[in-house]
Request: fold
Amino acid sequence: MSEAQGEHWDRSVDLLVAGAGAAGMTAALVGSIEGLEILVCEKGGTVGGLTSSSAGTAWIPATTQSMRAGVPDNLEAARSYLNSILGSRAGAAEREIFLASGARAIDYLEAHTAIRFVAPAAHPDYYGNRSGAAFGGRALGMAPFDGRVLGAQFARVRPPRKEFMALGGMMVSKADLPALLNPWQSPRNLRHAAGMLLRYGIDRLRFSRGTRLVMGNALVGHLFFALGERKLPIEFDTRLVTLVRTDRCVVGAVLEGPAGPCRVRARKGVVLATGGIGWNSVLREQLFPKAARARSLAPETTTGDGIRAALEIGASLDDADGNAGLWMPCSVLERPDGSQSVFPHIVLDRAKPGLLAVNRAGRRFVNEADSYHDFVLGMLRSDQRVPSVPAHLICDHAFIRRYGIGLVHPGARKLRPYLEAGYLFRGATLSALAAAIGVDGAALQRTVADYNRYAESGVDEAFGRGATDLNRINGDPEHKPNPCLGPVGPGPFYAVAVWPADLANSAGLRTDGDSRVLAVDHAPIPGLYACGNDAASIFRGAYPGPGATIGPAIVFAWRAARHAVGRRASVEARPINA
Reply:
């Protein structure tokens, strides 16, 4: 939309931020710290977006936090690692800016807020056999956040997926699982489990869910609390309709909220952080493979508003060299009321010994213990040759008792509801299971025989499962000789279907190193910025490590706000308070 001379504005601010996920809240927070008047509009009624249901990890190399944790990193190693994965793919200049700016952005947030990042000693990069890969230190996490400090505003924090909460509302991290699953194993486990349960019980007297926030909810809680301390206004249930552009630059936007349309003048610019493609059917059809268009882990309010609005005024869409999606394998349970429970298979079952994945031909197609993104890439590649969507995870009854599978928790005794719902398939023999899931029975028997032979030797001759740090750390360290390979059988045998779903997008608006949105001629559009999933990924469809979306989202949100205020974030070192 073009601006007419002397046009009326309902409201005027320095920086308008569309979206209150990790990227949007970071941009708003930094802009406020730098002295700008900020307005945040959020389409939904809560903050956090997809970050709320993520692990909340930020992949940022060579930080102060990694040194503080005793796992120092360096930029040359990170650069070598990325080059080994990405080669000559586009975006090298922006990746270099990310590497040079990452540590400074994190130090800036710690210097100006109470937010504290933690660098785990063991959280490996996803391609551990590549030059420069790190075992720990690059994937920054968050300590648990006490949601009680938000008071009534705690209700504004978007909950994680129901599938990842215990007892109807208690958040559980991977680190909590040993204590909860084996409370009698040690006094420490018992104290931890009892403390969590007591805290949750007290929480439910006042709140709709537990207030001990971990993973992505912890990051969102920290950012939201920091915004509250600065009294930054967030207009909830308010969507971005159009951007207002003069011949020269973007000067504001039209919003639609509970009170109707509102024209907001943005003197320093507009930051788009609306969550990316999400459920936008036009962009999904244009950019995603047909087999992966049906399911998304994005909130229902994420419908590509920022990308759409920018394209309407001449912005350039970057398809990330045809690698538009970032993927997660998900199983789906149809509930009696017609709704669905969607379970992302992140780390809890795929890498454990005694499970394999097969396509319709009854054959393996991927290293099941690789990252969720690479698992789905393998599924989509296989689907070009033989039907592989959905694929099926295969295991036996002993596996379910020990590790669980998808929505079926470890030790579950009542499998009938999952069987009757069509979520879990059972066969007394492999042939019977193959018939139940519609795969080639003879091929499945050969596949399992080969897999069991690999399990005995400890060497996966087909896909190298268990050969990387990522594989092994998500396997079972007590299982020998390979923590990721164990025999399947005797029966009964079980299967769960998994489908591709996008957890984020790699395609998005084309931006430069200061997060400025570029026009179709690749020139910056003054006054318009994009970060998070609204911007094309600097990794061009690759997923180098845990937090590969949140890390760049934070860093480029920091750069966007600094550029808007006129303090361009040079890639050269300077004091963090500068």
